[in-house]
Amino acid sequence: MIKRTAFVFGLAGSLATPIVIAEEASNSDEQLWQVIEEQQKRIETLEDSMNSSGESKVSDNGSVQSGARDFHIGGYGSIRAESNNLDADQDTFTFRRFVLTGDGKINDRLEAYFELEFERFGAIELEKGASAGSDGFSAGQAIEGTNGSEISMEQAWARYRINDSVNLDMGALLVPLGRFNINHDDNQWNLTRRTLVDRGAPVLPNKAAWPELGLGFSGLVETRAGLVDYRLYAVNGVNLDFEFEGEVAAEPAGNSTIGVTKFEAGFAPSRGGFSNDLNGNKAITGRLGLLPEPGQEFAVSGYYGRYTPDFMDSESVWSVAVDGLHTFGGFEFEYEVVHTDWGNIDDVAASFARAAVDKEVEAKISAEGGETTEVVSEITLGGLAESRTGYWIEARYPFWPKALDNTFLGRGFGNPSLEPTVRMEQVVVRNRITGIEFSNRQITNLEKEKSSIVNRVTLGLAYRPVPDWVISFATEYTWTDEQTLAGLTNFIPAGEDEDSVLAFSTGVAYTF
Q1: Which tens digits make up the pLDDT trace of 246-267?
Q2: Closest Cα to residue 431, out of 385, 389, 388, 390?
Q3: How far is the C-alpha of 81 from the C-alpha of 159, rounded, in Å?
Q4: Of 347, 331, 433, nearest to 388 (Cα)?
Q5: From residue 173, how far is each of 38, 170, 184, 459 by CA, in Å?
Q6: Distances in Å between the alpha carbon of 139 and those of 126, 130, 131, 263?
Q7: How is the beta sheet containing 372-381 ordered, strand by strand?
Q8: Which of 200, 252, 431, 512 has minimal CB crowding within 10 Å?
């Protein structure tokens, strides 16, 4: 407000100056024009000063500019329709995710970015209240929402550019393990489902998209061999964390019914906290890539850090990955290989049992009328395997027939393409914990599956009217060497005798 007021008075004074000078100059035309030009320059200088003090304006491309600031709002979304031959599954539309992004540049050396994801999100509603009266006091709350919904901060970081080759990154950073996690946006891929290695049966310590809170360095370095792309971060790291579930049920008991309230805390590997580190130890992760020319890349990456919380004995997880992108004669080949080792999971299970005391505790409460309520609390450990190894490789052939230029597929688009795509995937899981029983701080039974393999082949066709929009059609076949796919993935609701599934899908992924 002070700067704006100063500008107004300065402008008024500036405009008044020519009158005074003109009177003193006895109406000299030459002097008048000289004064007018000088005052015009002063007006332009004052206007520039006001703009640089923070006056906002909107550019033609929708970005908001504030002086030297440049802030862009964008995002992407994806929707899928699918059908499969599982007994328990149904044909469905799935709103895979809607993601809002913001990219702000203060100047060439300062930048901030965020990515907020609404996954399978429809609605959430919270109601709560309290009342007091002659009958006593009561307080309660109710939560309503669509099933499977999730809101997640996928990225939120600030970047300080030290020089052309070194950036200091701070905040919620994507873990640079492999290539999919750092390039996970749905509109970048031709198929309607993310890879097994990174999402469906994750070999990564945490499923993609996987951010961690931390800081480190990144950049591009020019060498004789090509561009070197590097990232090296210290982060809170993945932890054994729990999901809390509550259930209310009515179970028959002879001629009566028992009300049962169940509470379960299920511990499994999860991305690190954004409020505090659960074990006080930082994980290290990094990726080193070589780009000899456009369309060619080869990279190695890794991750290492403790994953058990403070109340358990220390155990670490480590991962290594190799990934790349290569172009040969119009064909594009992209791939990733990842291996993850969770250490001595027997010791982890024993330490968990000592901390949790008893897996299950039951209590029965009887009322005067003979009614009984049963309360059950259970603590479980899952999601752990001694090691996981997996790969995916994808081949694409982008092309465009000139005969389609004047059809509805090509008309109005500058560079459309059709891209036949095939992807092959495999995940091998070794010594997976399938069940644990413990009592009085001691394990009474620990069940493990020695080795299991999940395979998938996908054939698809992608139509891209513009590079950032894709309409896809795909057929995928997933199978295992075990009796059932149940428990081997996080998305296939297979029955106890269903060891394979054939699925058909179509979808669209778009950016804005």
Answers
A1: 787 777 766 667 778 888 888 8
A2: 385
A3: 38
A4: 433
A5: 52, 7, 13, 32
A6: 14, 4, 6, 21
A7: 239-253, 256-270, 372-381, 360-366
A8: 252
Render pLDDT for 270-321 as a digit per residue (tens, 0 to 9). 999 898 888 889 999 999 999 999 999 999 999 999 999 999 999 999 999 9
Least Cα distance to 428 among 486, 388, 383 occurs for 388
- Report the C-alpha gap between 365 and 373 in whole angstroms: 5
What the block records as the tokens of 189 is: 């891929």
Local structure of residue 275 (DSSP, 8 states): S
**Token code pair at residue 302:** 């890794």
The DSSP H or E segment spanning 220 is: strand 211-223
Distance CA 261, CA 373 (A): 8
Q: What is the DSSP secondary-structure string of 400-463?
A: --GGGTTSTTTTT-SS-EEEEEEEEEEEEEEEEEEEEEEETTEEEEEEEEEEEEEEEEEEEEEE
Q: What is the DSSP letter of 200?
A: I
Token pair recorded at residue 152: 């997640």
* Contact residues for 28 (Cβ-Cβ < 8 A; gap 6+): none
